[in-house]
């Protein structure tokens, strides 16, 4: 039983630490932040939230604390770019 409790604690702490590394979407460049580049993503279909999720994941992968979507378009194949900040 103790091992099960420890396993749940490890999983909870790991999940919480990953959440702190997630990039958040902003509407304008955050004050005091520096632009560290641009990421792009695309998705099949017309699910804008899926594209937004892919851009957020790429921003976090690049070490960004926040990102701002600067372009998005397409019909059956969406594409977009986002400026990333740290």
From TrEMBL:
Keywords: Signal. Gene3D superfamilies: Flavin-binding protein dodecin. Residues 34-86 form the YdgH/BhsA/McbA-like domain. SUPFAM superfamilies: YdgH-like. Residues 1-22 form the signal peptide. InterPro entries: Dodecin-like (IPR025543), YdgH-like_sf (IPR036275), YdgH/BhsA/McbA-like_dom (IPR010854). Pfam families: YdgH_BhsA-like. NCBIfam families: StressCuResBhsA. This is DUF1471 domain-containing protein.
